[in-house]
């Protein structure tokens, strides 16, 4: 399969000025990994609460912008990703480089934590299936063929 033939996954869209959030990392994985990294550095740097981190990060934002505890909570829970100004301020507050917070590729520590296989019932004859796992391209193509009803 050539590079052009490879289907593009749901990339993480970074709305800020940098392109740190790579399209090589699925959005769901990036959300979880970013949150894990924020929490890890928060603990390592001695922040005792999300509110403390929010106050510190707010000091590095332009006038009129701020962080609050809920924003930090959303990052840690994997709900949202920051824009450029907030990413920069958060990195400064944690005293780390921005690229230490941002997942550019899947790491060995990311995959086991973020693999999710969920099956739920839609109706009597239908299931909703969600699989979030790195697989070889040949496996991905076979799965897509099955989902499209192609027996090949």
Layout: helices, strands, pairs:
Layout lengths: L26 H18 L5 H9 L10 H8 L7 H11 L3 H4 L8 H5 L1 E8 L2 E7 L4 H11 L5
Antiparallel strand pairs: 1-2
Helix pairs in contact: 1-3, 2-3, 2-4
Descriptive notes:
The chain is mainly alpha-helical and 152 residues long. It is built from seven helices and two strands. It has two domains: 27-106, lambda repressor-like DNA-binding domains (434 Repressor (Amino-terminal Domain)); 115-147, no CATH class. The protein has helices at residues 27-44, 50-58, 69-76, 84-94, 98-101, 110-114, 137-147; strands at 116-123, 126-132. A two-stranded antiparallel sheet has the order 1-2. Helix 2 crosses helix 4 (84-94). The longest helix has 18 residues, at 27-44. It is elongated and about 55 Å long. The two termini are 17 Å apart.
CATH topology of the largest domain: 434 Repressor (Amino-terminal Domain)
Structural class: mainly alpha
Taking pLDDT < 50 over at least 5 consecutive residues as the criterion, the unreliable ranges are 1-20, 106-115
Q: Main sheet? A: 2 strands, antiparallel
What overall geometry do the principal axes of the alpha carbons give? elongated
The tally of helices reads 7
What is the radius of gyration? Answer: 19 Å
């Amino acid at each position: 399969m050539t590079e052009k033939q490879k289907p593009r996954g749901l990339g993480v869209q970074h709305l800020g000025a940098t392109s740190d959030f790579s399209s090589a990392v699925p959005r769901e994985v990036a959300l979880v990994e970013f949150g894990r990294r924020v929490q890890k550095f928060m603990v390592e740097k001695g922040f005792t609460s999300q509110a403390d981190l929010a106050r510190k990060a707010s000091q590095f934002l332009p006038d009129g912008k701020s962080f609050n505890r809920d924003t930090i909570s959303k990052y840690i829970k994997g709900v949202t990703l920051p824009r450029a100004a907030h990413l920069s301020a958060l990195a400064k507050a944690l005293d780390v480089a921005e690229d230490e917070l941002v997942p550019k590729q899947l790491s060995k520590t990311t995959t086991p934590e973020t693999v999710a296989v969920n099956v739920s019932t839609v109706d009597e004859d239908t299931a909703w299936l969600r699989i979030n796992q790195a697989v070889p391209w040949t496996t991905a193509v076979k799965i897509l063929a099955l989902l499209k009803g192609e027996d090949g």
